[in-house]
Amino acid sequence: MANKRSPLWNYFEIEKDDAKYVVCLICKSKLSRGGEGKKASTSSMKNHLQSKHPNKFSEIYGGPSSTSCAGSKTFSSTSSFASTSAPAQPASHKQLTLAETVERKQYWGINDPKSKEYHYLIGEMIALDNEPLSMVDRVGFNRLMHKAVPRYKIPSRTFMTEKIVPDIYDRISKK
């Protein structure tokens, strides 16, 4: 038999009939090891434990097995600057659906609440910094905004003049 150095082996045993497979001792699920001998790995065991038995997974790897935000990835640092008091967190990957991928690439609508928030922030910046409304047409400003908030489409000068500036004026004059 292979050397069982991984703590994962506390939760799995090699299937008696076929060494390419292991059986989870917790739920009796049969998992492929990817091959026999040197070709066998513990990746499927680790993934199974992480997704099906997160409590056991965190006993081995120290810490929660899920990420703090859906779709985000957790990376552990291996540099000398890493804190030695906190254990490393494994990366968690979630593949997006086609609809989610397409949605991430689309601009927010002009009346979307997130867009409106940026419209007003740009309007306030123009007023506070005494910038011309043509600022929204500048290449550098557009590059900055696209890099910072890829889904935000900067409105035209006309939109800012007709909608945002009067609304900001009304808000301030009511105070």
Automatic annotation (TrEMBL):
Against PANTHER family, the record matches this protein to:
BED-TYPE DOMAIN-CONTAINING PROTEIN, FINGER PROTEIN, PUTATIVE-RELATED
What are the entry keywords? Metal-binding, Zinc, Zinc-finger
Q: This protein is called what?
A: BED-type domain-containing protein
**The keyword Zinc-finger belongs to this UniProt entry's keyword annotation:** yes
Organism's domain of life?
A: Eukaryota
Task: Spell out the PROSITE patterns in the cross-references.
Answer: ZF_BED
The record's listing under SMART domains reads: ZnF_BED
